[in-house]
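Tutorial, part two.
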Amino acid sequence: MSSEYEPLLTLDGRGRVVGWSEAAERLLDRRAADALGRTVAAFLAAVPEDGRWLLARVPDRPEGPAWGVWRADRDLAALDEAVLDAVFTQSSVGLHVLDPEFRLVRANSYALGVRGPFEEDVVGRPAAETYDRVGIPIDEDILGDVLRTGRPALDVLKRSHPPADPLREHIFSASAYRLHDRTGEPLGLVVTATDVTERERARKRLDLLHTVRERIGTSLDVGRTAAELVDATVPAFADSALVALTDAVMRGRSLDLPPRASAPLLRCAATGGEDTELPHQGALLLPGLFGEELPTAPALAPPPPGGPDGPRIVAPLTVRGQFLGVVDFRREPGAEPYTYDDLVLAGGVAARTATCLENALRFTREHIVMTALQNRPLRQEDSTRRAVEVAQRHRPGGSGAGSWLDVISLPGARVGLVVGQVERTGLSAVATMSRLRTAVYSLAMLDPDPHELLARLHATTLRLTQEASPMAGAEETTASCTYVVHDPVSGRIDAAAAGGSLFAVVRPDGSVDMDPLGRTPLLGAEGPPFACTTQVLPEGSILCLASAPTADGQGPTTERLVAALGHPGQGPEETADAVEPLLARDRVLLVARTLRLPESELDEWPVLPDPSSVGPARRHVDEYLSRWGVAVDTFAVSIVVSELVTNAIRYGAAPITLRLIRGERTLICEVNDSAPTAPHLRHAKAVDEGGRGLQICGSLADSWGVRYIGEGKTLWAEFATEGRGPGHDPPDRP
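Running the prediction step on this input gives:
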């Protein structure tokens, strides 16, 4: 009974009667005056034999805590039986009572409704036989463990198609408990079963969303992202799937796509599953394959034309109002139909995929730009072919490491070899690479020494960092660069390097110098001075230049490089093939074999530091031009040579040397002297008798300039020729 009813009598904490009701007077034939203050034991003998007492605390008693005694109107055994009967007839949890031999003793109405057979058909039968009728396997090992140890087995999931809903798979959570008497002797088992189909399906949907988030978008590739969508949803959500993307997305075009059209051009991007009728990758898809109109939200769709008649969901792939494609989820005929919750799930999967596709499309656009900038094949100029034979390699990797190489034609038939790399990746690195590459070319036209060129390039790199610093997340711009100048007249190379780029020299006898420069600071980091070297190499030597060989800057072992390089007689192409596998992705390699100009292509003689030497020098040039048969304005060449020689005699220092170099399309005149003073062009006044020599050179020659070598300098002028004569032998020197 509830404590809200008045008790027969009330006891204090010592068991003495402190309250007596009229019902107690009638039941026990005692008045309140006779009972108050006495212990309860005096009245227990007067309890009727069929009576039961209930003892409970009396709440809200102002005098203090007390206990109340009530008489139970029904036998507790009858109450237990009523409770048990209610559980077996009204509970929504399936109950199955098994004896120690696992035979079914009793099952409640819910359990019978799940199983289907009537109770008289199954009582006394083994549980395994009973539940095998509806496809539920019984694990007697689990039941035996519960019966033996008394430890319950909780939440064991079983799948079945119950008779009440045979077309839909249900999931039941079963738990087993041991029954025993007062002595602890096992009497059997009670097994509860609860339909947790919706709970498990909700958990399965959450698991699928987690899988989608983990597995879709791992690569910035449109095709791979579509394939990841299929892999994540088949067979967990669909028996087969088809991902179709617009032709613009498949081709990696701009994100500024037109709004969703009624029938855009779609191509198959990825498929998977058991459906053999799915189109092959890249196939053009008919507009009606996904319905008369493409859906704006996930929707149940009719079977495709000529396809199997099974449940189907078609979901659009859209992001910020732009239509990227569509995904088609299909199940086999007779499979469980899709529900509203499945539509919501398909929408979430499609939204995640569309975002990843957008990211992949942006990367594709950047990759196209990076590839166009990074992978432009270097076309060797004809003017450099007489100085070096080159082979170039680029190992593409898609990250845009900002590596570059160049072969630059320099005055005096010389050639500049350049290899560099920006020390980060991405489109910004490729853009920085383009700016540094342009800077190197511009600086090379000024013809400084290699170490001076790198010092000026270092200042340019610092400038790029300053320009980028106001931008959020801008990083310090650093780069490595190796610059080598080869003179085919003397065989001399001047080289300088910043950073850890690979530079090796291989002589014709097969000897390899793996570290002619050593490791020096990066451009944009600590800065100059940068390591430099000057060597005179025999003709046929191999120069091997490469950007940092690996991503961490640590190149291959010296032994492997020596093994790849040290082969006498190996040409540039064979050397490049041997070294390329040792490089990491997004690195470039430049291999050059040095050449010497033949004696028939040049002439050189000393000039006395006396003004009277100008005439003989001019006549000597005229004679050589005549014997060489060079199609050039002889008078213009003579005037320029006179001015250069006069300038060296007047402002330079001995020794003075005049050199002619005959090219296929050019004639080069050089005058060397030992004075470090720099000539400069000035505009003479009308009354000045001199000061017009360099003006004359600038107006008559196609190009002219000055460069410094050691303690002296070289003034040069270059003339374009229309062709070469028959190639007579040079005249004898006087």
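The first strand starts at residue 9 and ends at 11. In part three we will examine how such features are distributed along the chain.
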